[in-house]
Amino acid sequence: MSDDRLGRKAHHETSDISHKKSKDAQHGLNDDPRQDAESDGELENGHDGITTPQSEEEDLPDASIKTRSNSPETQPEITYPEGGLRAWLVVFGSFCGMLASFGLMNIVGTFQAYLSSHQLANESPSTVGWIFSIYVFLAFGCGLLIGPVFDRKGPRWLVFAGTVCIVVGVIGVGNSTQFWHFVFTFSILGGVGTSLIFTPAIGAITHFFSLRRGLATGLAATGGSFGGIIFPLTLEALFPKVGFAWSCRLLALIFLVLLIVANLLIRTRLPSKVGGSVWPDFRIFRDVTFALTTAGVFFLEWGLFVPLSFISSYALANGVDATFSYQLLAVLNAGSVLGRAVPGWAADRFGRFNTMIMACLLCLVSVLGIWLSVGGSIAGLCVFGVLFGFASGSNISLTPACMGQLCKPEVFGRWYGTMYTVVSVG
Fold it and tell me: Per-residue pLDDT tens for 369-389?
């Protein structure tokens, strides 16, 4: 009797399952687990670097570090190689890009001194200074538009356009004779070109590094320091031998070689932001942490440019030889080589904001404790140049690392560019 009841029950369950399958088939549903697995595989491997969430206890592969996104909808995991040939080639490409772009920025003092005594000798120093003020403003301020474009379109066309602007601009500087010529060639073409290069160069690194982002950015940023050592000394040697025009043409050729390497190597790997606008969006200042960080970097850069702008004039006013006074900028840039790499390495271990605070304190000590007390002492000025260069150089490597903690990689360009647009006013 019991067996008959069990048999009837099994028969009814089988009938219910068959009926359910028939009903699902009519509605286009699929119970095949293999097809479900294929669908899951498409979601998991749909983009380079994006995988579906997995268990917290799952062992991560040695080749990559996985960081969980803050997105409340899908919460995918973003993988960062944290090294490897492709990642370090991007760092080298960024190094070459910043060697050219920040190298141009670091020869501002050399150009200003030469133009004030030659082509623009009849202009006041304040008038000549406008050429370089406009350049610096555009070099940092154009990130407001370039950053969002980088997030949407990637670095390729931005770096190419920057290459054209810088090379054409430097060649044009060599052929310029009037004030407005220099404003167009150096200020506008050079400033926009610098921004078109360094914003993608910094942003591309965030696609490959997270835990080691400070170190990678610091190594790339040393390119600007090397440029500050090499190019001013090169121009000072070339001016009396080949003249101003040919010196600029040779400089443009060097920049062209470096920027070709940057064009070939600077790449991104994470998917672009879908549906985002390329226009500025100041609503990001609603994020209090971002707004305070921007204010802090604004005052930091404002303070750092005072010694950078007046160290040579200070030395001249205290009776130091003119040649050595201008070479103090090279001494300062020599200190910033380590100042960009070492703090970046320390930031990955002790915290990006913590390391930035310590670097700011070291700048304060070097200015108040050394610079204002050494007078015309060559030894004292050299010590100050190396120490301040080391401390101030960290801002280029630590600022992107700090910003990377506040936003996702797909909007890094917008946040970083917007921040430096505010900073450019200072």
Answer: 888 888 888 888 999 989 998
Residue % of the chain over a pLDDT of 90: 27
Residues 220-248 have pLDDT tens digits of 989 988 988 889 888 888 988 999 999 99
For residue 90, what are the contacts with CB-CB under 8 A and spacing of at least 6? 204, 205, 207, 208, 265, 266, 267
pLDDT for the residue 233: 85
pTM: 0.74
